[in-house]
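Give me the fold.
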Amino acid sequence: MTSIGTGYDLSVSTYSPDGRVFQVEYAQKAVDNSGTAIGLRVKDGVVLAVEKIKHSRLLVPHSNRRIMTAGKHIGIASAGWMSDTRHLVKRVREESRSYTDVYKTKVPAHIIAERLAMYVQAYTLYSSVRPFGVSTLLACTDAKGPQLYMIEPSGYYVGYRGCAVGKGKQVAKTEIEKLDLDNMTVREAVKEAARIIYSAHDDTKDKLFELELSWVCKESNDLHVHVPQDVYDDAVQHAERSLNDDEDDNEMDDDEDL
């Protein structure tokens, strides 16, 4: 607790004199200390990718996934507290089921994003609760095509063509901005997403990590699923080759400087 926050960060319902809500900022810090998660919206679908940090070699592979299915056509990737993510995924499932029961059709992307954002924002209003320490990337398809939204711990949400959250978000955003997303297919996006996650990973701080990849697209019949194993393997090989090529280029530059 910094001196400027003393006395003003005891409750989420209290503003500081300069208009800040410190507990929301602390929740955002939990997101920034988590593994990187990115989303890419391309011409025929949405791809989600996550750098899941492995804190032990004893963990079962593919367990405790950070990319979850919240509806047949809805996928959620997260950065932050996993327990909070599971709670929000459960909420999205309930909202999606409720909308379908009433209107007899699947919930549009902007509706489910708005409802989730309103729910998250409600936890920044009362002193008896704390903000959710997680940012969620919501991938969905509807009548307007593929959609991608990001919901922050404050409840702020916005649609993106490409976005990143987590500790490697700055590196990931720089790489995403170089992509021609409007003319890219999901298979190309999967390879680029894997490459970006590998580029954003910091070996000096986190040695072990597991890559998660999912998509919602025409190839998956507009259902959110994890990518097939052969597509996953090709993406990992592409990412590793790109990483090795970058390292070789850096070594050649160092040699030329000498």
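The radius of gyration is 19 Å.
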